[in-house]
Amino acid sequence: MTEQQSRKRSFFRLIGRILLALAAVIGIVLIVSGVAVAATWGHFWDFRIGDPTSESCASCHVMEPYFNSQHDPVMLNSVHASHDVGCVDCHDYGLEHQINDTLAYLRNEYQEPLQRVEYGMDMCFECHVSYEQLARRTTDLGVTDAQAKGHDANPHQPPHYSNLECSTCHRIHRPSTLLCSECHSYQYRYPVVIEATEVSE
Question: Quick one: which of 187, 160, 158 has its CA closest to 196?
Answer without folding.
Answer: 187
